[in-house]
Amino acid sequence: RSRRVAILNQKGGTGKTTTAVNLAAGIADRGYDVLLIDVDAQGNVGTSLGIRGERTLYHLLVEEGTTPDDVIVPVRGHLDVITADATLALAEVFLARIDTGRDRILRDRMASLRGKYQYIVLDCGPSLSLLNQNALSFADEVLIPVSCDYLALVGVKQVLKTLKDIDQHLGHTVKLSGVVPTFFDARTRLAREAVDTLSGHFKERLYEPIRRSTRLAEAPSHRQTIFEYAPDSSGADDYRRLVARYVSNAAPV
Amino acid sequence: RSRRVAILNQKGGTGKTTTAVNLAAGIADRGYDVLLIDVDAQGNVGTSLGIRGERTLYHLLVEEGTTPDDVIVPVRGHLDVITADATLALAEVFLARIDTGRDRILRDRMASLRGKYQYIVLDCGPSLSLLNQNALSFADEVLIPVSCDYLALVGVKQVLKTLKDIDQHLGHTVKLSGVVPTFFDARTRLAREAVDTLSGHFKERLYEPIRRSTRLAEAPSHRQTIFEYAPDSSGADDYRRLVARYVSNAAPV
Ligand SMILES: Nc1ncnc2c1ncn2[C@@H]1O[C@H](COP(=O)(O)OP(=O)(O)OP(=O)(O)O)[C@@H](O)[C@H]1O
Ligand SMILES: Nc1ncnc2c1ncn2[C@@H]1O[C@H](COP(=O)(O)OP(=O)(O)OP(=O)(O)O)[C@@H](O)[C@H]1O
Ligand SMILES: [Mg+2]
Ligand SMILES: [Mg+2]
Q1: Which of A42, A89, A155 sits opposite B42 (nearest CB)?
Q2: pLDDT for the residue numbered A252
Q3: B chain contacts of residue A11, beta-carbon cutoff 8 Å
Q4: Residue range A99-118: average pLDDT?
Q5: What are the pLDDT digits (tens) for A43-95?
């Protein structure tokens, strides 16, 4: 049965998309079938991989009769994508105007995909939105990338609260599979202190940090994953390590 | 008449809050009366300055009878703030359910403040949201902080489209007062190329870059502006320069 993980953090620029893309690509490189879903109107997943969907997540959510196959785009061996673009912002308004079950629309639309993919990765946007609630109601696990700075640290509390709300109000339990420190720079005290704080709080669920690396920022400009663009870089090493740990982790019970 | 500027970019983590807080503080330091409004459910403005409003922007927008004075909190000499917190996410749903004029609620609520402040700065969240439409319908100008990386660069197109939509569909013209490159690091080619690209496109409207500086990331952890925390740092120099240029720019015609 498939593992579905949402990459979540309402704080902007904490490395969600970079993590979603490279996690999905790294898992696919190991031969598993992976679906990567862009749940953010910025459409950075498609941008990072050099693809545009004719039809997007917006259509799946809002237009009657759209099936997952209508919006799925194969992008690499073993890696398929559902893209998003600015029209997804209209999906948020559409969802807000539904009276009941507005958090389950994605789950319902994806039901026909049962078992097709071994891993489903959802790249969430920086918001407390109904779209993200839909992603969380569909996912079984969450990975939280946290940049190593103060404002991202304060944002972690809100992420945990979001998960608790999904549990309590929507009756859907999402397992916190891990917290990933990003933009780590061992030379700056703020970053080291951020990792210490996260480590004290999350203990064994803290993943090894992803180091700040210009290669990670350059890869999307070449429409490549870090493994394609700079396979020997620290960014590739760090994400390879993340993939290995994530795949070897037990799926949620 | 007051100048109202929205700090806008739907891309996450491009330095919007850091710019909003230090721009507002720098202008107030020159003796002007400034109101800084947090339009983001993350509430990072209050966090960065060490304050919490009992009542927030949510109350002003959603609760009948709330006036600006009920939610304004004086935080420094010449600097007042309207804070936000996670309840603001509920305001988005509230706005989505209004049939007409859902972009003008903020403007209507703020009407009684006419002339009280010489500058009003609005810190927008990373989204294409009705809340941001409200901020833009209230503002007369926009400053766009853009981090010096590829994904932020592709996001600029969307910001310009957002401004055009406000103009065409909501009949409200917002002047693009400037684009501010952030997280600039002269040693990385990606950053230099990003500034070149922005310069080619925006020409004289491009502000001097704000350099990446750990002090800027540390300041909020001390609940201080950069001018309080590290007045001699490059971060303080860069934002002082930005304030000087912004204040000396002609207000929109
Ligand atoms: N470890 C890293 N080192 C250097 N640059 C990075 C790193 N991780 C991500 N980046 C770059 O930093 C920027 C922000 O990262 P990214 O877009 O992945 O964050 P995000 O959380 O998805 O942002 P948003 O909140 O806007 O969705 C991007 O330009 C990305 O390429
Ligand atoms: N020039 C800089 N150098 C170093 N750190 C910075 C700089 N500017 C901002 N930061 C830090 O980077 C992080 C992101 O900046 P900030 O929160 O201001 O961006 P934002 O665009 O408001 O993010 P969001 O999209 O989540 O609202 C913060 O921790 C901030 O303190
Ligand atoms: Mg992203
Ligand atoms: Mg912000």
Answers
A1: A155
A2: 59
A3: 12-13, 42
A4: 94
A5: 999 999 999 889 999 999 999 999 999 999 999 999 999 999 999 999 999 99
Report the pLDDT value the prediction gives residue B59, as an integer from 0 to 100: 98
Mean pLDDT of the region B233-251:
94
C-beta separation of A42 from B10 below 8 A: yes
In B, which residues are within 8 Å of A48 by CB distance? 151
Q: How many residues appear in chain B?
A: 253
The residue whose CA is least distant from atom 11 of ligand 2 is: B217
Structure tokens of A191? 């970053």
Q: Beta strand B72-76 with B3-7: parallel, antiparallel or unpaired?
A: unpaired
Neighbours of A141 (CB within 10 A): 17
Listed ranges B17-31, B103-117, B238-252; the one with the highest mean pLDDT: B17-31
The CA–CA distances, whole Å, from B102 to A35, A79, B137, B244 equal 36, 40, 10, 35
Distance CA B149, CA B66 (A): 41
Is the confidence at residue B253, as pLDDT, over 60? Answer: no
* Shortest Cα–Cα distance, A18 to chain B (Å): 10
A213, A79, A127, A105: which is closest to B129 by C-alpha? A127
* Residue range B172-183: mean pLDDT, rounded: 96
Total Cβ atoms within 10 A of residue B199: 15
Structure tokens given for B14: 């491009």
Ligand 1 pocket at CB < 6 A: A 12-18, 40, 44, 125-126, 182-183, 210, 212-213, 216-217, 220; B 11-13, 126, 149-152
Q: What are phi and psi of B54, to 5 degrees?
A: -65, -45
Are B72 and B116 in contact by the 8 Å Cβ rule? The answer is no
Could you tell me which residues come within 8 angstroms of residue B54 by beta carbon, excluding any fewer than 6 positions away?
A: none
